[in-house]
Amino acid sequence: MFRQASKHLLVFLAFSSITLGRKWRDSGEAWTIPELAFQPGKKMVLSCAEPCIQGISDPVSAANMAVTVNNRLASDIANNTERFGGFASLAMHNATVAALELKRAVKELGFLGALINDYQQSGPDGQTLLYYDQPEYDVFWEMVTDLDVPVYFHPRNNIPAIVTFEYAHAPFLIGPAQEFAVTLSTHILGLCTNGVFDRFPNLNIIIGHLGERISSDLLRIDTQLLKQIPQGIPMKKNVTTYFHTNIFETTSGNFATDLLKFHIGQIGLDRIMYSIDYPFVNIPDGTLWVNSLDTVLNERDLISLKRGCAIEVLRLND
Ligand SMILES: *[C@@H]1O[C@H](CO)[C@@H](O)[C@H](O)[C@H]1NC(C)=O
Ligand SMILES: *[C@@H]1O[C@H](CO)[C@@H](O)[C@H](O)[C@H]1NC(C)=O
Ligand SMILES: *[C@@H]1O[C@H](CO)[C@@H](O)[C@H](O)[C@H]1NC(C)=O
């Protein structure tokens, strides 16, 4: 179907406009799909906005809510799957439970992958943070690679303890300007340095905001990590390499033309997808920027950015 679509078709990676998962949970507020997404020739991938399930500490409530959110999203897009796709929400307390819900979402609901909002809160006080770079998550990554779907890592608001310790002195840095990229990039570099991509060489991870700053700093990261080899770092390759084999990035909300050009040099255009980050970023801002890129990218490269890479990663032609 996509092969016949107009070459101007865009694949958005967006987030459902349900505002925060928490708000929706508490109020039962309906989500709405943005009007612009209904324009001809566009496909938008919807998911539950942060922190969604990652903010639910109780494993049973989290797992149940993931099923509810996934069923709800599936039914909302069921009559319009040409235009909309879904990323599964997952409770990440137990890797087996997460793997089985992902399988259900992909096989039964037709979802294109999962979107996880950084670490999973858990524990009676919500202060235990679970990161998926640990060996107990191998069963999850195995399912992800068996299903051959990508997992998008999106930032989340930190728990209050982290905000107090690290940002009380400079509260204006809380949120997307600094805090989000710092927390999420550490999680992603955890996947790299703990050897997840060595154990799962076919794993595809998507990260937003033009790489959460990692791909702007690859030389320093990798030269410094070389010093960890004598300390037994499990990582077999280097972070630069994983950005060529396992990690894709999206432009979401980072509409910086010079940085895009730099990253094309660092990791290649075939690893970068246009996305917006709606509802945190306005759709017209993204449209204005992407339409301005015809002065810096040739037509073939612009099509790759706007749709080609996403069609590959999301297997939209299969
Ligand atoms: C799908 O259903 C929604 C909600 O009922 C409706 O607004 C929309 O027009 C429908 N889309 C199509 C393509 O039928
Ligand atoms: C995780 O879930 C599986 C499947 O329900 C269960 O068999 C296993 O005991 C759980 N693991 C833990 C650590 O709770
Ligand atoms: C990363 O590994 C690749 C492949 O071995 C190598 O060519 C490259 O120089 C390395 N990059 C850094 C910054 O160490």
Polypeptide structure, described:
This protein is an alpha/beta fold and 318 residues long. Helices cover 40% and strands 11% of the residues. It has twelve helices and ten strands. The chain has an eight-stranded parallel β-sheet with strand order 1-2-3-4-7-8-9-10. A two-stranded antiparallel ribbon has the order 5-6. Helix 1 links the parallel strand 1 (10-13) and strand 2. It is globular and about 50 Å long. Mean pLDDT is 88; it is low at 1-30. Bound molecules: 2-acetamido-2-deoxy-beta-D-glucopyranose (3 copies).
Essential attributes:
single chain, about 325 residues, alpha/beta, eight-stranded parallel beta sheet, two-stranded antiparallel sheet, 12 helices, 10 strands, about 10% strand, globular, binds 2-acetamido-2-deoxy-beta-D-glucopyranose
The DSSP helix count reads 12
Question: What's the N-to-C terminus distance?
Answer: 9 Å
Give the H and E element order: EHEHEHEEEHEHHHEHHEHEHH
Sheet with the most strands? 8 strands, parallel
List the strand order in the largest sheet: 1-2-3-4-7-8-9-10
Q: What portion of residues belong to β-strands? A: 5-15%
Keywords: Decarboxylase, Lyase, Signal
Signal peptide: 1-21
Domain Amidohydrolase-related: 54-294
Family: Belongs to the metallo-dependent hydrolases superfamily.
In summary, what is this structure?
This protein has twelve helices and ten strands. The chain has 318 residues and is α/β, with parallel strands linked by helices.
Draw up the topology in text.
Elements: E1 10-13, H1 21-27, E2 42-46, H2 59-77, E3 84-88, H3 95-107, E4 113-116, E5 120-122, E6 128-130, H4 138-147, E7 151-153, H5 160-167, H6 179-193, H7 196-199, E8 205-207, H8 218-225, H9 239-245, E9 247-250, H10 257-267, E10 272-273, H11 283-292, H12 299-313
Parallel strand pairs: 1-2, 2-3, 3-4, 4-7, 7-8, 8-9, 9-10
Antiparallel strand pairs: 5-6
Helix pairs in contact: 2-3, 3-4
The structure holds 2-acetamido-2-deoxy-beta-D-glucopyranose (3 copies).
One 2-acetamido-2-deoxy-beta-D-glucopyranose is lined by residues 79-80.
